[in-house]
Amino acid sequence: MATETEIKLRVSPQDMDRLAAHPLLERYRSQPWQSRELLNAYFDTEAGDLARAQVALRIRRDGEQFIQTLKSKGASMAGLSERHEWDWYIDSDRLDMDLLGDECWPYSLHQLDKQQLTELFRTDFTRKSTELAWEHRGVPTRVEVALDSGKVATACGDEPICELELELREGQPAALLELALQLAADIALMPCDISKAERGYRLLQPGSFELNVCPAQLVAGQDIDSAFAALMQEQLAASQRLAEQYRHTSQWKLLQGWFDQLTGMRALLGSMGQLVPRKSSHGLRLVLDALLADWQPVIRAGMAGREQRDAAVALFAAELQQARWGMFSLELALWLHDSGWQTGRNERLERQAKAPLERWLVRFLQEQAQELGLEAYKLKAYALNEQQPRLERIMVWLEAARHVLTATGLDDTLGALRKLHDSLQADDPDARSRALLQTCADPGWKALLRGSY
Predict the structure, then answer these.
(1) 84 versus 21: which is more confidently predicted?
(2) Who contacts 333 (Cβ-Cβ below 8 Å, separation ≥6)?
(3) Would the pLDDT of 75 be above 80?
(4) In the predicted model, what is the mean pLDDT of the chain?
(5) Given a cut of 70, is residue 79 above it in pLDDT?
(6) What is the pLDDT of residues 148-203, one digit of tens each?
(7) Pairing relation of β-strands 118-136 and 75-77?
(8) Which residues are paired to 410 by β-bridges?
(9) Quick check: 77 pLDDT over 70?
(10) What are phi and psi of 379, to 5 degrees?
(11) Within 10 Å of residue 302's Cβ, how many Cβ atoms?
(12) Residue 32 confidence (pLDDT)
């Protein structure tokens, strides 16, 4: 068993040759490029039991060698994934069931009859690969670079494979993110956490997509710093998967979900005050603001009619052809990996960042609710748009952490705030007035205003 640390990035077919000749790869390359054909059969039950357990089982043919591999789902952030992998050299293209023992087989599958395993789909591709070697932050680093071109083939259809894989052989994970970021500055690269295996399953079961993002588990007593980082990581991972799935299916609700994750990330950055010094997050805020400014009119238009929703597909494809989205994702991932938000904090702020989440949250929500001043907008609901950022800051924390507070009825409060926010997004004056009155009358909202828990 080994732990595999890698990042996958989607590349347009016309950029593959440019990527292979990139000066950065040439500078660090420690061996010649090699090209080989990799033929892969993926196995599962007809019911998809392995997929539900987030396990992938394949047999790869590499030349005359057959390799049986079992992979388990691990941690992931912006396409950078760490997971367990078991490899066995075998004599043929048939599964060796004896190798699938307790040391690797998930406990949730212990009752599964392995004789039900059958080949479900294939991912056959040509891999052009090399190895890079350099010193990163004073640490010897080796990275395998693989350019994969081919297709995922199922009984229900095919999908092209065109991607860059960077796998860490020696060194620190940050090296992968920094390398990817430098490449993405010149060539549009989209971090893609949906594996080749998952692409096979989604061709077989088009309606089965799930985010499969590990939710932030916030608890009372947790410090503010770790809560902030966990929420940002969750929303970044979700935005990546939603972007990829929307690119694949063009389902409107996925684009809305992607935009909601961007909104949540911006609200989180804005909620932290001096705990996230503006200088440390200035670049990220600028790009987020630009993305939100560009896409809010698209989302608003799409809420009005089918024609506008259809037009958004081409707009998103054009977004992915630019460097902006990929670079932002990688920059944020590296910032989170390096705890970049802590840069520039003094000792007082460091102490505040270690305060219990629930204590900070009571004060934060009361201050924000009072500054929102909803009562003052009852006679001028049309002007409430100016308070949308503050409303989103309240919502992002209520969504994730209301369970750490002792107040009751906050689920209803969050529901009322969502209706109010939706009315702002849709620019619906009547719905806005109704939602405003409902929120002002909500007992949980009144508790937030008083800070009484």
Answers:
(1) 21
(2) 77, 78, 79, 80, 177, 191, 236
(3) no
(4) 94
(5) no
(6) 999 999 999 999 999 999 999 999 999 999 999 999 999 999 998 888 999 999 99
(7) unpaired
(8) none
(9) no
(10) -95, 0
(11) 21
(12) 97
Distance CA 72, CA 230 (A): 22
pTM greater than the 0.90 cutoff: yes
DSSP letters of 115-168? GG-EEEEEEEEEEEEEEEEEEETTEEEEEEEEEEEEEEEETTEEEEEEEEEEEE
- Which candidate, 78, 84, 82, 83, places its Cα nearest to that of 193? 78
**pLDDT tens across 325-374, in order?**
999 999 999 999 999 999 999 999 999 999 999 999 999 999 999 999 99
**Strand, coil or helix: 442:** coil
Q: Which two tokens stand for residue 106?
A: 């998930």
Calculate Rg over the CA atoms of the chain: 24
**Alpha-carbon span 254 to 246, nearest angstrom:** 5
Q: Tell the residue number behind the tokens 């689920």, with chain if given.
A: 411
**What is d(CA 98, CA 95) in angstroms, rounded to the nearest whole number?**
9
* Burial of 312: CB neighbours in 10 Å, binned 0-12, 13-18, 19+: buried
Rounded Cα distance between 58 and 71, Å, is: 9
Question: What residues are paired with 68 via a beta bridge?
Answer: 59, 88
How long, in residues, is the chain?
453
Token representation of residue 210: 């799930």
Residue 213 or 124, more confident? 124
The CA-CA-CA angle for residues 140, 146, 152, to 5°, reads: 145
DSSP 169-229: EES-THHHHHHHHHHHTTS--EE----HHHHHHHHH-TT------PPP---TT-BHHHHHH
The pLDDT of residue 193:
82
> Comparing C-alpha atoms, which of 423, 413, 416 is closest to residue 384?
423
User: How confident is the model over 262-274, as pLDDT tens digits?
Assistant: 999 999 999 999 9
**Could you tell me if 208 and 161 are in contact, meaning their C-beta atoms sit under 8 angstroms apart?**
no
Residue 178 tokens, joined: 């920094």
Q: What is d(CA 322, CA 187) in angstroms, rounded to the nearest whole number?
A: 8
